């Protein structure tokens, strides 16, 4: 790491810590003003058998009544970790594009589609945009293709070959498949666009009927290529987000279940999307508002939009721009 990069990293860490402390001070001030807590309130675990007590309250708050002081502890915990805020934009226009992520994942789930089937439908409708998919959906498609073709080629599609293909890119996948599948190359006809449509047609057919080994190799190659092209970090965040949605869980419930199953589970690097935290805040507020009249719409706006999830605007960079006055000689 260069000296400048190291200095920038440390400066960013200092700023993030300062901003967190400022948010915490503002949050505590608002909570005191509205009678949630006092100067004597205990806002952390204290005493025997209190490990994960705040996390348990956070999980419980989404479905059951808790006291205002306990709710304050939950908001303080949410305020500390607010989730990853993506800067990706939604494509718009006449290409029939969809935002990658939960919108596509829900469609796959509701209509029982694989990514290959979904894209083939789009291409048949003359749509050019191909959305991104969660790694777990692509893994599920790979397994569906593998299990279907294994019925017809049981002696070739072994567990050893499956493990060898796991985590490989397109080129590596073809190389690994070449010997056991007896591949000598496959001649493709048509334009690149025609071949792309054919690839997705093969992916659609490969989960339901026997295919020639060369075509199966292309299918596995293309799916593995897409998996390899996904970001491991963002892919993990996306898969957690999908799990929350399909299990109807909040972030707090998701993490508390892990701790209940194994108290030694590490939650340190479990990152979630900012929207997942916003959804959790909304669900907790709606539940607790049934029991506490103090939880008004104005207070909700103040806590959620001004204190906890406030996103400061980017600073103007005009001061870094040099203006040069170019004087052209008169002719």
Topology of helices and strands:
Elements: H1 3-33, H2 53-61, H3 68-80, H4 102-111, H5 115-124, H6 135-150, H7 159-165, H8 170-178, H9 192-205, H10 213-228, H11 232-247, H12 251-261, H13 274-289, H14 297-308
Task: Explain what the structure shows.
It is a single chain. The chain has 331 residues and is mainly alpha-helical. The chain has helices at residues 3-33, 53-61, 68-80, 102-111, 115-124, 135-150, 159-165, 170-178, 192-205, 213-228, 232-247, 251-261, 274-289, 297-308. The chain has two domains: 3-84 and 272-308, no CATH class; 102-228, no CATH class. The chain is built from 14 helices and no strands. Helix 2 (53-61) crosses helix 3 (68-80), helix 5 crosses helix 9 (192-205) and helix 9 crosses helix 10. The radius of gyration is 26 Å and the shape is elongated.
Poorly predicted regions are 89-100, 323-328
Radius of gyration: 26 Å
Shape: elongated
User: What fraction, in percent, of the residue positions are helical?
Assistant: 55-70%
Number of helices: 14
Mean of residue pLDDT values: 86
* Beta-strand percentage range: under 5%
């Amino acid at each position: 790491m260069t000296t400048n990069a190291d200095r920038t990293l440390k400066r960013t860490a200092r700023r993030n810590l300062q901003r967190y402390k400022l948010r915490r001070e503002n949050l505590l001030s608002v909570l005191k003003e509205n009678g949630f807590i006092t100067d004597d309130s205990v806002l952390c675990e204290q005493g025997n058998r209190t490990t994960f007590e705040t996390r348990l309250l956070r999980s419980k708050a989404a479905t059951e009544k808790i006291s205002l002081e306990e709710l304050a502890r939950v908001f303080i915990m949410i305020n500390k970790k607010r989730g990853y805020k993506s800067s990706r934009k939604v494509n718009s226009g006449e290409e029939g594009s969809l935002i990658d992520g939960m919108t596509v994942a829900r469609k796959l789930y509701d209509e029982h589609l694989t990514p290959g089937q979904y894209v083939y439908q789009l291409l048949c409708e003359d749509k050019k945009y191909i959305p991104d998919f969660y790694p777990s959906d692509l893994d599920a498609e790979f397994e569906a293709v593998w299990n279907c073709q294994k019925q017809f080629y049981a002696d070739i599609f072994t567990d050893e070959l499956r493990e060898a293909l796991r985590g490989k890119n397109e080129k590596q996948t073809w190389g690994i498949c070449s010997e056991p599948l007896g591949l000598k190359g496959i001649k493709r006809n048509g334009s690149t666009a025609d071949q792309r449509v054919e690839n997705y047609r093969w992916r659609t057919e490969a989960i339901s009927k026997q295919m020639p080994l060369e075509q199966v190799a292309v299918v596995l190659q293309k799916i593995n290529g897409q998996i390899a092209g996904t970001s491991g970090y963002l892919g993990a965040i996306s898969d957690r987000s999908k799990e929350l949605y399909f299990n109807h869980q909040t972030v707090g419930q998701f993490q508390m279940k892990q701790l209940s199953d194994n108290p030694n589970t590490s939650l340190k690097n479990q990152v979630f999307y900012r929207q997942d935290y916003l959804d959790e805040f909304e669900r907790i507020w709606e539940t607790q508002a049934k029991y506490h009249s103090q939880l008004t719409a104005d207070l909700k706006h103040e806590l959620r939009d001004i204190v906890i999830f406030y996103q400061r605007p980017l600073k103007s960079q005009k001061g870094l721009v040099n203006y040069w006055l170019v004087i052209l000689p008169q002719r």
